[in-house]
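User: Batch of two.

Assistant: Item 1 of 2:
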Amino acid sequence: MSEQTTGSRPTLEAVAARAGVSRATASRVVNGGAGVRAPLVEKVRRAVDELGYVPNHAARTLVTRRNGAVAVIIAEPEFRIFSDPFFEQQVRGISRELTAHDSQLVLLWVEGPGDHERIARYLGGGHVDGALAFSLHSDDALPAVIEGARIPVVVGGRPAPGTDPAVPFVDCDNRGGAREAVRHLVGLGRRSIAHISGPADQTSAIDRLRGYRDVLLDADPELLCAGAFTEESGARAMAELLDRRPDVDGVFVANDLMASGALRTLRERGVRVPEDVAVVGFDDMASVVDRTSPALTTVHQDVEGMGRLMVKLLMRLLDGTGPEIPGSVITPTSLVRRASAPFPAPRGVSRTG
């Protein structure tokens, strides 16, 4: 394919001449091909920088068989993606790692089942080299849609049962983090510890609920209330718990947004935190924690780092380096103690409201 261009824009021939190599060698270097000795690679790259040469994308695709783009698929509607800081941090980590690999991010989201056909057409059209998918739901057809595209994929979060076990994933230790959160509340002397869980069709919520039950084997079902990983759902769930069990003195909330809503309800009801009710969240989202009052005790997970790990696993699949199927990764969590459940925490005799 000819790399000649018009005007004063430098050509591949000019790069080859400046580097003192053949056009074929220059083409392999600038388009990501293999088989060129390191000293020649350095000469060509120096010539590219000096001349300000921009490679032809079509030529590069022919050499590398890559499009230089990765689909990032979030199985949530637009309003969730742009209102939940979890997605912002995950996409930031993905974007930064893709940039380091000279690849572009193509963001796709799911407003409803009708979007599956659109995504299937796009993935099957050869526009991207692979896909990263997260926030999947157990009854979602999206995993099958991605599998049908026959492109490498890495999943964020533990996949639901029935998903192809060969697909690598990156997740945090949701169950272990939840256990640590609940043990902390028990250590504060709390006896009626409630849990506001996430959606029952997402494995992160399931694992955090399991962690709660690991510690409180005989927890009263009245101390359990489901939310939707949104602030408003956390506020509603907290109100329901207070109406149902006015003796609740601790609550583990499955994410920080819901915990923020729960704190708002407690404040409106005149319930003191942590004197009357100690609150622990999950995620450690700075944009949420910084505005809670009191400051939220929560379980930290490295969301941005998990996004970077997803890209690294995908690149291993694309490059064919290491095992054919990279192993999945479970990252550690840690409890961050703040004012909503300090250690030790003050206790009140009775509620003021």
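Item 2 of 2:
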Amino acid sequence: MVLSGPERRTSVHRTPPPAAPREESVVPGLALAAIGVAAAFGVHALVPAVPVLTAAVVLGVVVAHLPGVAPLVHGAARPGLSMAGKRLMRLGIVLLGLKLSLGDVAGLGWQTLVMVVGVVLVTFFGTQWLGRRIGLSDGLSLLVATGYSICGASAIGAVSGMLGKDKGDKRYEAEVASSVALVTLCGTLAIAVLPLFKAPLGLDATEFGRWVGASVHDVGQVVATARTAGPQALTEGVLVKLIRVAMLAPLVAGVALSRRKNAGHPVDGDGRWPALLPLFVVGFLAMVVLRSTGLLGSGVLDAADTVQELVLTAALLGLGSAVHLPTLARSGGLRMTLLGLGSWLVVAAAAYAGVMLTT
């Protein structure tokens, strides 16, 4: 029987639409990150000189290379670990704003504010120049420069979204992870190295604290280094460091503007312009304002500080797990080491000069 009209149309075989790709579960990776966080705190409890965040990066690198665990890290656990390295890092940056109030900024005086801005700019542009001179990519040089000049891994996480890389870009993920590992390592070495220079440089407690705050990368590393010279050095170091943290927002906006100007077209991996101030940086600024109102009690601030340390520890473990040492060695491990040491000298020298001129 021959069909015609509507009957013919209804009898035509229709190909079903392709099934949507199944999303990979983040549960294995987040579970592994949680185990790594507990292990990092355990390492810190056994060896207090090793900061929790440093232990997390090292553990992430180690598990990514253990024969029995590496297949899990690079397979089923990869989505969750990548999520930790990106989204939990952003949450940690938001909570970082609760460490700083506008009153803290005003209390240091304009000379100190100018000094901090000068150190940040010298370190940021000096590190990028040095990175290009020794043959590293612009993106990698930018990441290291940001980490050294502002606040270590948190700043690298904030600026990494400005690079316009596609999601899943393995080289990009490796550059971010390697930058975090480098800046964390040098910041940890500062805990042991900088106190040795206090007496030879003739620094009193106030000057030493400000030097540490202006030159050491992570807030926790500043605390560990400055406290070796007493409570006055610790107070000065943390305040100066938090002013550097406040530079995160204008630096991210500056990087976004620069990339827009140089590219002339959208450079985001999804074909969009990167936001001048990403949402998590806006959240960081909102937390600074909230802290400045005085509405939050010490219990809330302490709880937020604990949550921030937990999520940053998980984030750094996730980033560390993306480091592949053989690839890193082939793609410029020696040059990255030279850049790290060079940038460390730049920030230490600039901070010392700034402290001597303003105290």
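The chain has 18 helices and no strands.
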